[in-house]
Amino acid sequence: MTNPVTKHLNKLPPKHRATIKQFAKYMAGGGIYFWSGYAIFAVGYSVFHWWWLWAKMLADAIGWTCNYLVQRFWAFSGQHHLSEMQHAGRYIFIEFIGFVLDYAIIGGLKAIGITPYIGFFISSIFFTFWSWVWYKYWVFPETGGKIKR
Does residue 5 form part of some domain? Predict the structure, then answer.
């Protein structure tokens, strides 16, 4: 028996199917980043009673590393058209901008009395779409040409 989701996916044009599959992989990487970061933040913030910023920075350092590996070698594995340093440099650049925005979102919410735990979820909604667009079209861009090394 065919899975109903697969049945509907098979009716889509191949390019749309590929994008949906890639987005699912991207979300898996984002999930690893989010949940590993959330757990590390919880331990640092609630168990060790670190300032929220230090706990978040450690969580992000580990989460970004895991996320890069998943995005680079699985979700966008067919889009390696730049050198490793170019991919990594673009990833670090866009994550730095995201870092500033993320900390502004979570810090701003904390300043008005919303716990950083809720701030994580609110911020992640924004970054789900922000990162998808940047990863797909700039960090790991699709090209029709030869792979550049």
Answer: no
